[in-house]
Amino acid sequence: MANNKQKVSVFAPASIGNVSVGFDVLGMAVKPVDGTLLGDVVDVEYSDNSSDLIVIGQFADKLPSNKEDNIVWSCLLLFNQALAQANQEVVDVSLTLDKKMPVGSGLGSSACSVVAALAALNLYYQTFQQFSFSKQEMLEMMGQMEAQISGSLHYDNVAPCYYGGLQLMVPDEKVISRTLPSFNDCFYVMAYPGIEVSTKAAREVLPAQYSRADVIRHGQNLATFVDACHRQDKQQAFSVLTDVVAEPYRTSLLPKYQQAHDYLMAQGALAVGISGSGPTLFSVCQSEQQAKEFAQWLESHYLQEVNGQSFGFVHVCQVDENGAAELAAK
Ligand SMILES: Nc1ncnc2c1ncn2[C@@H]1O[C@H](COP(=O)(O)OP(=O)(O)OP(=O)(O)O)[C@@H](O)[C@H]1O
Ligand SMILES: N[C@@H](CCO)C(=O)O
């Protein structure tokens, strides 16, 4: 019997799409070391009326005002369709999206909403309706929703956001994504400058074809990185973290990126890259001390003002091994 105490809450973390060497095929979930929830939260609770969506949070006003255009609403429709196909009863629920992630940031903002929504719905049904979809089925739905919003099917944000850790997308629909050993003693400085770059626009600047030299370099960098992850060879892994597929073409969309990249590399960063399709920059550091110094520098040199206001932020992060996680009921 449903009642008004039935409620679950799920957090889904930010992620670094591509990780420089794996365009559309590598992604890593991150979490700030100070405990800030860098990601979106979705609550699902019993409704005795009809299903609904409320959007709150710092970046709520950046989303479409009607709920039908919010990807979280599309997630509910897709989930209900899957329930019907599985001959399960569909119940009315009220969803609340706490939109903590800036849109078009390169932090996998839409993936955070998609993963938090679908994972929360699955948890709700598992807890109160004794039915749930498998993780694999969930990831497929998440990919479908991410494709709807960005115009192409790529799992490099939804897979790490859902599973956590460093994920490699494999061309096998029965697997989709495999966890790679990551460097969890490293620190990843994430600097979001406060401007918006849409994934769609950042894909449109990419060439349709690449030279043989680029193809060889890309294959060699990705293969060397994956091998070094398995051997936990940090120096080797980060020495090849160079993007030949997207970064050379996207730099022009990212004011101050090249200067920041060159400065941080000269100061001893293990690597610097564009997170996803940008504009967030990530920098890999050996020590927390170095990460904090870089964070301070990026705050003064990479964040930007839009109409006299700054929406940017910088966080010192580590790998988020958990991915989407239930939050204690408030
Ligand atoms: N809940 C939601 N979260 C994020 N974007 C949403 C959501 N609902 C609808 N949208 C719309 O989807 C589009 C998302 O664009 P885009 O794919 O560039 O963003 P993103 O996922 O935030 O980017 P990134 O992966 O670089 O962080 C925007 O037009 C936004 O208004
Ligand atoms: N891998 C995709 C999305 C990253 O968020 C891209 O770089 O366009």
Automatic annotation (TrEMBL):
One record GO biological process: threonine biosynthetic process
Coiled coil start-end: none
Class in the EC hierarchy, top level: transferase
Stored PROSITE patterns: GHMP_KINASES_ATP
Domain GHMP kinase N-terminal: 70-165
Binding positions for ATP per the UniProt entry: P102, V103, G104, S105, G106, L107, G108, S109, S110, A111, C112
GO cellular component, one term: cytoplasm
Enzyme Commission designation: 2.7.1.39
Biochemical pathway: Amino-acid biosynthesis; L-threonine biosynthesis; L-threonine from L-aspartate: step 4/5
Domain GHMP kinase C-terminal: 246-297
A Pfam entry, by short name: GHMP_kinases_N
Location(s), subcellular: Cytoplasm
GO molecular function: ATP binding; homoserine kinase activity
Reaction(s) catalysed by this chain's protein: L-homoserine + ATP = O-phospho-L-homoserine + ADP + H(+)
Signal peptide: none
Keyword annotations from UniProtKB, A to Z: Amino-acid biosynthesis, ATP-binding, Cytoplasm, Kinase, Nucleotide-binding, Threonine biosynthesis, Transferase
Keyword match Manganese: no
PANTHER family reported for this sequence: HOMOSERINE KINASE (PTHR20861:SF1), HOMOSERINE/4-DIPHOSPHOCYTIDYL-2-C-METHYL-D-ERYTHRITOL KINASE (PTHR20861)
Function: Catalyzes the ATP-dependent phosphorylation of L-homoserine to L-homoserine phosphate.
Family according to the record: Belongs to the GHMP kinase family. Homoserine kinase subfamily.
Protein's UniProt name: Homoserine kinase
Biological source species: Litorilituus lipolyticus
Gene name tied to this protein: thrB
